[in-house]
Amino acid sequence: MRKNLKILIAFIVVAALGMVAFILLKQTQPSVKTALPQKAAKLAKVKRINLVTLGDSLTEGIGDDKGEQGYSGRIAKKIETQYNVAVTMSNFGKAGDRSDQIQERLNAQPKFQHAVKQANVIVLTSGGNDLQQSLLKNVFAKTPTDLTAAVVSDQATYQTKLTRLFHEIRTYNRQAPIFIFGNYNPLFVHFPQRKDLNQDVQLFNTINSHVVKQDKNGYYVGSFDLTFGQYRSKKMRQSLGQQAAKKTTENQNSDQAMTATLMGETHVKNTWISQTDNYHPNSIGYNYMTTQLYHVMRKEQEKWLIKH
Fold first, then answer.
1. CA–CA distances in Å: residue 286 to residues 61, 249, 290
2. What is the pLDDT of residue 13?
3. Half-sphere exposure (CA, 13 Å, Cβ side) for 193?
4. Please, are residues 60 and 94 in contact by the beta-carbon 8 Å criterion?
5. What pLDDT, on a 0 to 100 scale, did the predictor assign at position 231?
6. How far is 265 from 307, CA to CA, in rounded Å?
7. Which domains does the chain have, with CATH numbers?
8. Can you tell me the distance from the alpha carbon of 57 to that of 70, in angstroms, rounded to the nearest whole number?
9. Where is the SGNH hydrolase-type esterase domain (predicted)?
10. Three-class SS state of 125
């Protein structure tokens, strides 16, 4: 009887140890969420990714002196190299489009709709032209406070339009994650003393962040550091402000200067921004946007490493 009891106890101990070892082994094995990129793609058994980018000029790649379609071409290449998968990238960016115009194009173009339906991952830029329209409309506001008040009043309209755009996208694809960029202030180096303009951009960025969170499978990608470019430190920005103050003369018309800059008619001093138009990122700026996007996509890789 004792011998049988010892055998039973030994069996239970061995079984328990085996169960513990199995659990520990399972816990240490990487999942699609935690694995390194190439391992994650293998675990997900994904060999091809359909990437759709849509939006405005930032998606189209305006200002890219390397001709790589801005962040769109760069993120496609980065996914290919990091995850060792083939990437089919469809770029539906169009310069000048506001959020409602992006929706109109999606609603009217079957090729656009088909690409969105097939997408594993969707990336969107929106809000820059909506905000620019608001700024140009109110460029002659008497004070910065008045201008910000006008921008605030336009926030609700933009949120409604962006929400409609998200609903339109989800009409064609309910599963793919949507990554949306925030915007930046290309006017900063010309008007560093106008902190209200940074605040106005952040007001619209808040809308992007809020709407994408409401989507439940959407993610916000910050790009606000494009505002400062090479002026990385607070000390450098203060120095820039002092230089701008010195250049201000009594006969200078600040309203005309603002309009000229908004229309891309002045020379750029931000090395992350294209010297062609004083507004869009150059290759350095688009490299930054790509890095920002990849960082968020990497964290959420299990959401888009899915067989379509």
1. 8, 35, 6
2. 55
3. 10
4. yes
5. 94
6. 47
7. 32-304 (3.40.50.1110)
8. 9
9. 54-238
10. coil
